[in-house]
Amino acid sequence: MLLLKSFRGMVRWGAARCPGWPGIASQQRRPIVKPSLVQGSLVVSLAALTGMFVWLVGPTSADDNDQGRGRRPQTYTVLVGAEDTDVGATVVGFFPENLRIHVGDTVHWQRNTHEIHTVTFLAGTPLPPFNVPAPPGLPSPQMHNPLITFPVAPAGGQYDGTTFATSGIFGPDGEAQFEVDSFDLTFTRPGTYNYVCAVHGTVMSGQIIVVDRHQRIPSPGQVNQEARRAIAEVLDAAPDAIGLAEAEVPPPTQNADGTTTYHVLVGYAVGQLYLDHFFPEELTVQPGDTVE
Hints:
Blueprint lengths: L1 H16 L17 H23 L17 E10 L4 E7 L2 E5 L3 E6 L8 E2 L9 E3 L8 E3 L1 H4 L8 E2 L5 E2 L2 E2 L8 E2 L1 E6 L3 E7 L3 E11 L8 H16 L2 H10 L5 E2 L5 E3 L2 E6 L2 E7 L10 E2 L1
Parallel strand pairs: 1-4, 3-14, 8-12, 10-11, 16-19
Antiparallel strand pairs: 1-2, 2-18, 4-12, 5-9, 6-7, 13-14, 15-16, 17-18
């Protein structure tokens, strides 16, 4: 419609200046455009505009319209742990626990709690102990295992699954000498790569599944959304877990000497949900009573 209106304007301009213009009936004061002339001009104009559009936009392909699903390297985020400080709840887990990526994609593990964790790829080796005997002369007889404390990664973070790799200790202070705030690896070969937190063992483990680029996988944004949904689902169970913990506190025991022995639970866990509480949190006792 826009082309037709523009062409009509051109015709009227020509008629006013060239009464004998081809295709115009000179005996009529109101210009009349021959249908054949309009159709031919429209075809030419549309063809010219189409050609210009293709030249500007360029050719499209299934790869271009695939929104980068495996066609360009992506970075996926895995949240390390979770917490709700208002209720004193900590979640021991990786979110997502299982992640599918393409060859060449990068996984970015991000600290998400005050609890300490590691991201450790064993590559067939045994899980190192988190604490080891300290050398003589140190204040404590135990110290963190240096193999776990310090990051170990391949050159450039390019990981093929054949070597031991670990993040170092994720901690609440990313500026501290022995604590990290994030860890990145780029996966260069298809395969399934299992990893674990060296602090909490197999209860906190994850898996990276690396697939060929032609396979469809969720986008980084979809993965992040699902991870946060999973965290919220676990934390929503905290009130019920608190009720379970309170119900498991043994009742006080009356002793023969007239004193009382009280029992306190130090923390409580339901699956991946840890409650950082004493149960009960407040206790009134008399001189001579026992708390255990």
